[in-house]
Amino acid sequence: MQEDTFPAAEKILSDIENVLKKDTSLKSFEIVPAEDNENKSPVFHQEECLGLASWCVQPLYCYAYRRLLEHRRNRHRREDPSNVARWLLGALLLNPDVATFWNMRRELVRCHKLDASEELAFTRLVLHQKPKCFEAFAYRRWLLPYILDAKGKNYDPIAAESPLCAEADVARTCADRYANNYHAWSHRRYVMTLRESRGYTHPTLEAEWKSSLAWCQRHVSDYSGHAYRQFLLRKCVLETEASSKEDFLEYTNTADYRQRCDAVLAYVSGVLSENPHEKESEDSTTLTRDDTTCRTLDMLHGKSHPGCTSRLESQACFHALSYWIEESMANEDSIRMYNDHEALWCHRRYLAHLLLRLVESYKMYSTYKAGVVDDSCRIRPLELGDNVDGRNESKGNNIQAPLVKAFLDRTREIVELARKRDAYERILVERFQRFLGNIGLEL
Q1: Sheet containing 49-53: order of strands
Q2: What DSSP character marks residue 29?
Q3: In the 3-class helix/strand/coil scheme, how is 148-164 assigned residue by residue?
Q4: Minimum mean pLDDT among 49-58, 291-300, 334-343, 425-434: which range?
Q5: What stretches of 363-431 adopt beta strand conformation (E)?
Q6: Residues 298, 359: contact at Cβ < 8 Å?
Q7: Name one GO molecular function term (predicted).
């Protein structure tokens, strides 16, 4: 097929275009192994699936590629936009990594020759065939604000109708189809950031937190998923800083909030019962969910001088801390269950570092502040005479915090378990212990 023309090309491209127009709910596109059959169309359509016979892939792509480059070189010659769109359709379905073709498609959208919503359906097919295509994700990120701006300022759809929920679903499908798909998880982060910037309700942070946990528990070695969990964890920890007092006050009366308080207190209960120095009153070792006070938080973070926050702020801090504890315990369970997964130990490094950032932030402000939590330059907190609340805390004071003690005790247990496994697991444990030493923690 060295000729510039492929007689059946236009007919095949038209068939593909017609299928996309007739069935807007297409979910997949596949290359179907098949030999040349002159009496049968190479385009297959069945049950929301589009297929193309393998024998025509190369000549069809070459045809579309040549036509598009010729159109690009001779812009003074007017070409029907519908023809250009059809050529782009075939070229991008077969090879979506050509940035020039996506830019040409953007031009057609700007000129209102292509519908932006239909473009989302088209790129979904592209991503099903090639789920790690950066250019396709970039094109969808370009389309989303374009679509949302047209909806108006008061647009805030329910979950079933939300374009952002659909985007999260696309990213999840791509992550399922291609391991360690960083582009898919980056796109999902973008969706959550866009939701926050525009003030939309869906997808909610809590829904993403739960669904991503289930996904990571099924794909324990995929660090891209754990990195997304780290992104969400930061959002959850700092969410109460931006949430309204009325909404949070209503939330404190729910069963979910009470369960989260119980989880925080259960996490440190063993440390408090073993260390009499942590007792501040006769019932310090038998804390209940009603003890979500500033005094309790001061004790958990090892803050030697009383803070000055309201009960509502203390409850918000308790709630934020529960997300870190939930993630830490999920990580422990995965390490106990699965051998030789470096992603789990790397994720625990992040949890250890974040815990120190949370402890330092609380000691400074009696709450969690983004400026301290995000300060990755300060690897060894509260050292070298750092001043907290106008007073110098002693070096290593973080280790005296029951939260840090409980983390180290639990880490010590899984380290001892991992050392009994194979040699590779012991290497991962040694690397993890070196990291802990670098941030000022010793098992």
Answers
A1: 28-32, 49-53, 43-46
A2: E
A3: HHHHCCCCCCCHHHCHH
A4: 291-300
A5: 387-388, 391-392
A6: no
A7: protein prenyltransferase activity
